[in-house]
């Protein structure tokens, strides 16, 4: 899979992550691809987690979860949640190729977070769609020349 | 293809060490990790079975400096070599930019080298990648065992077996002592970055 994000799209995605996730108390929020690359990241400035290792493991983990889904006859499982004592991790698929990872503490309720993640995923999808449309327009105008 | 972040001026390159089980892929990474420990900000991630075999992958990110103002971050991965873990191998190969094939020089392991290289070709093909086009370096590992009287395949034999059609750079190496481990790494990084540069032209 090949994809591209320009500076504008990345700014837009990071703004969404900041406003919708970090501002409600999430510690770290990452958008990664299934190869384990970190596309966008936002944090509250107090976390020093190794996000690159986390992304590599999360991508691998999600691949394994997808394989499990197929064994039980599902196309895929779209979300995953690991509960910790102080911090928990929530993974959610965005389209087929991206993964939204949020790390949050006990002060954020899981239900609220899930609602927010759903909204953020929707907004990111719109950004991706917008990017695809821009590309399509660009190609069209190129072929007109 | 590598991930290029224009905003952070950062390029993430994915390099995977592939090869038959017990061939020395993890040992390669362990050597690099210990050699460049002070330059690697994170710990090495290693998911192993109880018998110390790689179950999932080993991983660490490695900053190699800047090219034209972009920070180049090389993400090094290994795969589990055992035949039964093919699904995991395929998963780790997703988005790969360059491959090091670590072949086992022991005469006994000749067949497993063939099978693993063939398996790499098949798994790359599932991502529409061609083994003849992807940046690839062959490493003939365990050359140090000759001193202990273990029967090894000669370098010429291994070249003929594995590299006669691929014709890619190759190194005789010893991951345990570190011989040519860094040379292999440097070669695959330069091939991968050059290939990326060509793709972006």
Explain the overall architecture:
- The complex is a heterodimer of chains A (145) and B (201).
- With 145 residues, chain A is an alpha+beta fold.
- In chain A, 48% of the residues lie in helices and 23% in strands.
- Chain A has three helices and five strands.
- The mean pLDDT of chain B is 92.
- Chain B is α/β, with parallel strands linked by helices and 201 residues long.
- Chain B is globular and about 55 Å long.
- Chain B is 32% helix and 27% strand.
- Chain B has five helices and eight strands.
- Chain A binds chain B through residues 1-2, 5-7, 10-11, 14, 33-39, 50, 52-53, 56-57, 59-60, 63-64, 67, and chain B through 1, 3, 5-7, 12, 14, 41-43, 45, 56-57, 59-61, 73, 75, 77, 87-88, 91-92, 94-96.
The span between the termini of chain B is 14 Å
What overall geometry of chain B do the principal axes of the alpha carbons give? Answer: globular
Helix content estimate of chain A: 40-55%
Individual helix count of chain B = 5
Instruction: Name the overall outline of chain A.
Output: globular
Structural class label of chain B: alpha/beta
Number of beta-strand segments of chain A: 5
Indicate the low-confidence ranges of chain A by residue numbers: none
């Amino acid at each position: 899979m090949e994809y591209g994000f320009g500076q504008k799209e990345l700014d837009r995605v990071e703004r969404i992550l900041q406003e919708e996730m970090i501002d409600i108390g999430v510690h770290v929020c990452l958008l990664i691809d299934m190869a384990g690359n970190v596309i966008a990241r936002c944090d509250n400035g107090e976390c020093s987690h190794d996000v690159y290792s986390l992304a590599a493991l999360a991508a691998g983990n999600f691949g394994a979860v997808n394989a499990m889904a197929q064994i039980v006859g599902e196309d895929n499982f779209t979300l995953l949640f690991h509960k910790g004592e102080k911090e928990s991790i929530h993974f959610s698929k965005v389209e087929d190729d991206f993964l939204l990872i949020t790390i949050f503490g006990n002060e954020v309720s899981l239900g609220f977070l899930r609602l927010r993640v759903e909204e953020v995923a929707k907004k990111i999808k719109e950004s991706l769609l917008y990017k695809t449309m821009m590309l399509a327009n660009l190609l069209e105008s190129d072929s007109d020349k | 293809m590598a991930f290029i972040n224009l905003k952070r001026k950062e390029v993430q390159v994915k390099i995977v060490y592939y090869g038959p089980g017990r061939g020395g892929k993890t040992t390669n990474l362990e050597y690099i990790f210990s050699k460049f420990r002070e330059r690697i900000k994170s710990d090495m991630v290693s998911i192993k079975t109880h018998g110390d075999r790689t179950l999932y992958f080993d991983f660490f990110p490695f900053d190699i400096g800047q090219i034209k103002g972009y920070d180049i971050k090389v993400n090094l991965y290994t795969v589990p070599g055992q035949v039964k873990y093919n699904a995991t191998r395929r998963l780790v190969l997703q988005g790969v930019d360059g491959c090091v094939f670590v072949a086992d020089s022991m005469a006994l392991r000749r067949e497993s080298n063939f099978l693993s290289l063939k398996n790499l070709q098949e798994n790359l093909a599932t991502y529409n990648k061609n083994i003849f086009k992807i940046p690839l370096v062959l490493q003939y590992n365990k050359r140090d065992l000759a001193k202990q009287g273990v029967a090894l395949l000669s370098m010429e034999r291994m070249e003929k077996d594995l590299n006669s059609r691929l014709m890619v750079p190759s190194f005789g190496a010893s991951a345990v002592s570190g011989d040519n481990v860094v040379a292999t790494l440097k070669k695959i990084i330069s091939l991968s970055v050059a290939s990326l540069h060509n793709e972006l032209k």
